[in-house]
Protein 1
Amino acid sequence: MRRRSGLVQWSAFGAVALLAVWTCCWHLGRQGINVDELVYVQAGWEYVHGTVTANLEHPPTAKYLYGLAQVLFGQGVHAPRLVAAAAVLLTGLVLFVWLRRPVGHWGALFAAGLWWLTPRAAGLDAFDPASATPVRVDRIALLEPVMVLFAVVAIAAGWAWMTTDGRRRWWWAGLAGTALGLAVTSKVTAAFVVLAIVLLPVLFRRWWDLLTGGAIAAVSAIVTFCLAYAPLGLVSAVSYMIAFQTRHDDGGHLVDLGGTTYRFAPWWTQFWWATQGTGPVLVAVVLVGAVAAVVVRPDRLVLTLVAAFVPLMVFLALSTVSLPHYYDAWMPFVLALAAVGWTRLGVLARDELARRRAGRRDGSGARRRAGRPGRPGRPGRVPVLGVALVALVAAGVVASASTTAALAVAVAHVRPAGIAVLDTELRAHGVDGGTILFTSYGAPAWRPYFAQRGSDVLVDGRYAAIVQGTDGRFPVPAAVRAFTQDEADALESFRVDDLRVWVPRGGGDVVVSGSTLTIER
């Protein structure tokens, strides 16, 4: 019986893991290029070839890995995306190995599955293939996938440090510090994970470990940090990063939230992006699971997970810059907490049903011993609480599976879209080369494809086409709007997914002079 149970458990793990590999890796090359991704990939290539001057506003470790991947598998975004995919898969594996002892096989698998198989989009309309929005933050080579992997390893190693006896626990303390150093040198946001690591000895009341193991972890983190920054120049690179990020936060960053544009992101921005990126069903699953974890049994594991993500949330809430993918930093810990909560609801349901069955058996036995016949014609009372809990857990599993299905469909339909195929469509309409005027479309979207021949500022010159996007942060200039309306007969208009394009009918250019636009053949 135990062997059969183990076979079922590991077969389920294998199925979930295989689906995770497919979700992370399928059609990676078809995903549109993100401007930040391109910066990190190019910087990584330069780093491994001895030039360490690019993108010093962010730490280097993830870019080292992206550069090394390009050396091994070819230059471009595809190899770094495989690194990001591997980081996601390893993050889920670490969650599974870590949580298997405290919450059991199925709870650990649920945590890994939530991480591997649910959407975390980096923007809006990710389930529409025409939007070119990644349905998962980690399907492009940003800094977050690598940072998150090392942050989760740091917390898991810290937990092993507390739950391991003997000298081996010092190795876990060293691993926790090293992983923290790698996380922080991938993206500095991970620095807040240190609070959860420091809290662990307090929760376990191991004060000697706080001093000795804490010292080992601290030294490991510092050494790792210094080694990672050594090629860049430790003091100068860190000083530049701090100065840059301070200016960035002081200046804000335009975000469009539900049709309203903000220069300085409101405190709730990250939660808005998370809701848009994961969907209302997964939000409900996470909220119910997290509340259950805190209410049913708020033990050391729950407090550790809460300590891992709450400081990150607070920091991002206080920041005036909040981009669509930032929430990914705290998602693994929130999803793990939700899995713990749902697992304990399931255990509660099982125990309640078992208690009611045991109560009925004891009652029947007592009547027989007293010589009183049972009453076979009278049905037993329905265990309302147990049935309700079973129904709730079943609903949670079905809801989670529905988000997995939606993600799988989105991944299966990923294709080059919008800006990625614009040049091909322009050639099909007789436009081969020339400068493109972009309106209502931010530079981070078009620059990876039209860096040398694009402009989103209405300056004097000749333009081969006008392209209008859907970014409310950058309104269409009144002169451009009036021109496309007044010259509708002289312009050929067509759509490329979410982009609207105008080119002079029969050839020619759009000439901008001051606030006047004309067509010259």
Protein 2
Amino acid sequence: MTAPTLRATDQVRGPHAGRARLEEDCGPASAVASYLDAVFGESDGRAHLAVGSGQRLEDGKLRFRSWVQSSFAWPAERDLLARNVAQEAAAGADVYLCPYLMAGSGRAKGAAVERRKVHADVDGQLDLDRVDRLSGYAVASGSAGHGHVYVDLDRPVPAAHHEALCRALGRYLGDADAKISDNDLLRPPGTWNHKAAPPRAVAWRRKPTGIAWDPELLAQALGVALPSPDLPQALSTPMAAAEPVDLDTLPARVRDALALVSGDRSTDTMRVVGACHDTGLTLAQTRGVVADRADLAERLASRHDDDVLRCWLKATDSRAERTRARNDEADSLQALDGAPAAAPSPAPGTVAGTVPGAAADEDAAARTRRLFPRIDWHQLWADDTEEEWIHHPLLPARRSVVIYSPPKVGKSLVALEMAVAVSRGDMFLGYAIGARHRVLYVDFENDPRGDVRSRLQAMGYTPDDLDHLDYLSFPRLAGLDTERGSLELLEAVRVYGSQVVVIDTVSRAVDGEENSNDTWLGLYRHTLVKLKSAGIAVLRLDHTGKDETKGQRGGSAKSGDVDAIWRLTRITEERFRLECTDSRLQISTKSLHLRRHQLPRLHHTVEVLGAVSDHDAKVAHLVELCNANGLAVEANRDAVRTFAATRGIKVSGRVVQDVIRTRKGELQREFTSARDG
């Protein structure tokens, strides 16, 4: 047929516009990244990835022994997604992406966040001249002459318009298959198609131009009439029918959610759907509940998407996030629920289609060796290097250390001073660090202006002194005892090139219950073991429980993975003790007596040997306080103990006794001096 005369707007959409004209010889990683930017742009949602491995041909179709699906937050996990695609492709897998962002972790038809493009999967010879007339972009799918074509729109369209435009685009290009949905999976450039032997590259045929079409003009050019927006929503979106419900029999939580009118109908819809989801109602029943409230029903009728389904999927994703560990490496051999049925494994020694089973096994073995490298015993025996220290004795290289204390003792202050010293290669507590290290400080406790800046200024530092200290203040990380939190932190470590990570405080960095051992086992399994295997040193800060003698608060497993545990104790307002209570490596100095100085700058020093004992220092400090505040010299033990408690000082009976004796001795000396004088 004769190609219609086409007109497009000049609007350039999204961050991909500036990257549209990449070099023709860009590598796989660049091809993947440019594709992600092109199809997802500036939207927010979850990108869905599917990975098939153990490939073989059966009846002309590619079957997989393993089919694993996962999702990534866009744009927060952009680089992580691109790296996963490139790694899986390099490992010999077939990789697919949904070119539309979803509202949740489910890849359901009609659940796209928005539809700002149309696509077609061409199974015949791709006519690139026709793609150029549409100012579209195209990807060779790896089958001879076949490809995927995309055309950008300058605004989102409802599902019915999207489907009509996709069908029309397929007819215009010819030989298009039935992939016209917003949950389709397509091959991204930078990967491989293993239908043929040897595998064929999936690559750009036409790069994005940055030109976006007005949907109405594109419909005219393709010769299709779009459904009227005035049609009932049920006809324009793939929604399931609503099921009538008896409001009086609904769970109390659902009735309460319906009764609460916040003035924000979007928020109210999400709250009602979430309550229905959590109390076990079906999606159809949830639609009936939402439709029973007039203002919410009016809002839904004015929309061209399935907002109830969007909220339902978001609720599913939110409720499952804490308990579901996403398999980011896609290495599990068990297909997820809802994935295409995997073909049975070939019998030993047999060949399926044109892909030998032995070759697939060989690929799987190579992947296993890459992901789980074994120790080289000869190399280990030949390694006679001594324990490396970033700071001796507090921070060994590549290990995990805890400093804990009661609240308000000053562990964050000590940790901040050490973090800056490590980042600058300066002296700290008498130890010359020497080399500079990149430090990532993850702070869930301290206000950046009122605490962090004021402390750094008191230490005498300026912004120019802190170029190797990367400080995350109240970061919106998922719990580090979850796979998602682990991926987020590891991505920050990768981006900033961190060699040391400080977590302040660890109890605020997890989602699980603090007293549950599962929480701390999850923290180690998901995050700490990965940091250790990457050679990253970790310093984490923690609090004591009500009984300070029992160590860190929380489950006993909290201490199981660390290499050294240090307890910080206040002796006086200026004197502290750091004591190593447990370690799995040899530490020659297990007790440090610290003094905090305010002038000429805020810093800590280690007291020399032979200095006054902790007991004597506490007695002298309490005597000074008693005298300064006019406590009677005749005060008994209870009075002295009560006075100390009002100053936040915990004292033993021996300290109280020596305070009383010292004060009476001072009085006696004064009397004698006055008499003799």
Protein 3
Amino acid sequence: MTYLILANISLILFFVIYVLVLKPLTFFQWNRGYLLSSIVISFAVPLLQFIDLSQHKEVYQPLAIIDFVEMESVHMTQTVSGNYWSAMDWVRLVYLAVVGLMLFWLGLRLYRVFKNFEDTGTGQRNFSFLNRVLIAEGIHHRDVIAAHEQIHIKQGHSYDILFVEVLRAFNWFNPIFYFYLKELKFQHECIADKVCSEDKVQYAELLVAHALGVSHNVLAHEFSNQSFLKQRIMMLFKNKSKKINRTKYILMIPVALSVSTFALAFNSSIKDAVDNQVQRLENMDISLIAVQGKRVRPEPEDGREMFMKWFVDNYKVPETIDPTDNDPFIGIVFNVSKTGDLSDFTLREGTQFNKAFFDEAVRLISQSKWKPAERDGAAIDSRGWVGFKFDSSSKIIENHTRVDVAPEPKGGLNEWRRYIGKWYNFPKKFADEKGSGEVVVSFVVGKSGEIRDLKTLKEPVTGAGKRAHDAIAKFGAWKPGILDGQAVEYRYELPIKLSAPNALGVTEVGYLSSSRIKE
């Protein structure tokens, strides 16, 4: 819907510029090109809102582990499978029905045009269409009329008209296409008149003579009819426009840029990319430097670099590291009070290690002094972290930077949640009974981004979980998770709340939680 609105507003803006600025000019070919370009740009530029402009970028956080947790619920009103039709379904039906009628009407008019070529005695009527010309028998000035119609054929004017007619069928609700057709026909006639009017007075008299009694046909190009007669004669005798006036066609650029801006504003991939990044930062339970405001994370008094050097030098490895461990990493989070006191040490990652590894790290961290986090210059309570990784010789890797990127669906998580809500096939029986309940499903995003191991953990009615599986699988693969440059697998759990007030199924796609699968 947004696409059609932007496209048709653009058409109107371009046409207003044409009428007020460009139509009086004698650059007929330029005007023809302007009108056709206006239509193409109006329908091409709004497509920017559908292009996926998000990019899968690795987020580098020194020694930080970022858990992916979705904190936003999406409410979707879902059509119950059955005979229920929403208002939007009826709008689509009416739209498609009228499009069908418009295309049928176009086909009927094309048939009538070709039928006219079979009758060579059509009074004083002279016209061309595509590569065919009809000139009435015994007509005067036959050579001038033939030359005029040949201009239409050589320059493909009929294809311009057909192009606009087809678009008009799909945009039948906007009367602007009637005016575009009329002005294109006018420019076509001016182009042909300019070439064929060696004697302008005699040519104008010929136009008047042939215009009487000739009916107007939008598809075909008639040598003369009353519709454009006065305007054509005025343009015939009008002085040529100065070349400097061609700069006025630059007015097309600001309109195109404005439409582009609005199209990008409605591009969900950009919005979702920003929203997802903000959500990730907000949902981290470690303190980071805030994007906005004066916020400082907690850190050792001598700086993190000096602290980690001291930590590496003094850490006593309790035992040899298992050489088969693909990710010998330990991450510890803890509270840092506004007075700099440390407490509540928690093993964030590294559960495969003996508890002695954790205790040794806590012993060293407890000996260090930390500066508290600050917000707008005031000390606050926060969470600190320390993480380190061992090499194959059981030594801590100095200056190791942890890179942990969670999987992401194409178009972003907001778009994925909307998709699940839209395509979840609400159980009809459950809706008829006006039931309510929660579906909880789990799935794995593999190393290649494939979706597998779909499981139903909870369902209020048999088959409700399977319907969630179908929607998740229908969306397709995700961008895989990355850990230290290597693809990793993630397991997700998704709860979906179902309710059916007034027998209308409502689907609420809830919190999405994740955990990385360790090898």
